[in-house]
Design brief:
The chain is an alpha+beta fold and about 400 residues long. The chain has helices at about 1-10, 15-60, 75-80, 155-160, and strands spanning about 65-70, 70, 130, 135-140, 145-150, 160-170, 180-190, 190-195, 205-210, 210-220, 230-235, 240-245, 245, 255-260, 265, 270-280, 285-295, 300-310, 310-320, 325-335, 340-350, 370-375, 380-385.
């Protein structure tokens, strides 16, 4: 009986080999489990760092998902400053004391160390690297696989966008010959202005516009006493040509008309030209300058006057005559033409020399003129002739 019991006990136990096999299996399972845990942890660290890089990107260039009335309204640091931050720290601190800075652009916990805040650290605790020159942020990750985030495929897409459109009057007419009295001005961060004029068909284009929400003005009658200004706001997104059209509240058609049989040389002085205009509008028209076109580049005018109540008033006089080239500008003392009123202008003393006193006079018969006034009125073309 004792022998049988011993034999039974021996059969119910484990051999040393069996124990070793069990320990090996447990070790393998533990290794696999630890590696799975490490992989899960690494995956979490990469996910957290990727999320942080995305948040930093939005703080710099804005969040395209923040939309109002169908337009992006958040453009981050660049939207306010018009440039990339010098360092990531500039996202939470106005290091340049710039009036346009409207941060912090990154939320940091209250009482966090502001010298080395954690928003600059990746999930491994290493500082995120940032290049202002290339617009790139990167994390070295675990040292084997790094993470890189570009703010855009190209910085050109951020800073070299375009805004364009058409300018018309209340009747949908283009400016035509009045294009020179219209300006389009875009106001950008840091007191930067982009200014242009439309062409005669009304098309204008503003280049080199950074992303952001910017004010753009269309101004008619630049330099006059009462210009008309239209104001709009435009949201400029990366890699875009944003259309913005303007329509003025009045017409581009001339309010001043050339009086019939006007446009002659002066009695006894063929070197001077006289013409009369009629105010066809129902309002007083203030004039501050006029320009004339289609004058030979070898002919110069030395004086301009207007006639009011039978008195000739000098509006322009200069020791150097003007007129060379296709257009000449007269900055005249402000004169007003009443509704349904007439005004006569005389361009005196046309000479073939712009400076020399007593230079030879130039007869002005059969010369073609166009006159553009500061209110936008264009008279002509008309060809001068001797007085009746």
């Amino acid at each position: 009986m004792k022998i049988n019991n011993l034999k039974l006990n021996y059969q119910n136990g484990f051999t040393l080999v069996e124990l070793l096999v069990v320990l090996v299996i447990i070790g393998i399972l533990s290794g696999v489990t630890l590696r799975a845990i490490d992989m899960t942890r690494e995956r979490t660290l990469y996910t957290d760092t990727t999320k942080k890089l995305n948040e930093l990107t939005k703080s710099i260039i804005g969040d395209p998902d923040l939309i109002s009335d169908g337009r992006q309204v958040n453009f981050g640091f660049i939207g306010d400053m018009g440039r990339l931050p010098l360092t990531l720290y500039e996202l939470v601190k106005n290091t340049q004391n710039h009036p346009d800075w409207n941060g912090p652009y990154v939320k940091i916990p209250f009482l966090e160390d502001t010298v080395n805040p954690s928003f600059k650290l990746d999930a491994w605790g290493n500082e995120i690297q940032y290049s202002q020159q290339y617009g790139v942020m990167s994390s070295q990750g675990n040292g084997q696989l790094s993470l890189t985030r570009n703010l855009a495929d190209s910085l050109t897409f951020i800073f070299n966008n375009r805004v364009s459109g058409m300018i018309t009057d209340i009747d949908n007419n283009p400016p035509g010959n009045y294009d020179t009295i219209i300006r389009v001005v875009m106001y950008l961060p840091d007191n930067v202005r982009r200014e242009t004029i439309p062409n005669r068909s009304g098309y204008y284009l503003v280049n080199n516009v950074p992303i952001g929400k910017h004010r753009i003005n269309a101004i008619r009658g630049v330099g006059s006493a009462s210009p008309e200004t239209l104001v709009k706001w435009v949201s400029v997104v990366p890699k875009s040509n944003t259309p913005i059209d303007f329509k003025f509240t009045s017409t581009f058609r001339s309010n001043l008309q050339l009086v019939a049989n006007s446009g002659t040389t002066v009695w006894g002085d063929s070197s001077s030209v006289q013409f009369t205009v009629f105010n066809n509008s129902g309002e007083v028209i203030p004039l501050e300058w006029l320009k004339f076109e289609e004058i030979s580049d070898t002919v110069f005018c030395g004086l301009i006057t207007n006639i009011e109540f039978g008195i000739s008033n000098p509006l322009f006089a200069d020791s150097t005559r003007v007129g060379r080239g296709g257009m000449a500008n007269f900055n005249i003392n402000t004169t007003e033409i009443d509704p349904s009123g007439f005004e006569t202008f005389t361009l005196w003393n046309w000479r073939n020399d712009p400076i020399t006193p007593g230079a030879p006079a130039v007869p002005m018969n059969n010369v073609t003129f166009k006159i553009l006034f500061s209110d936008g009125s264009l008279i002509g073309p008309f060809t001068t002739r001797p007085p009746l």
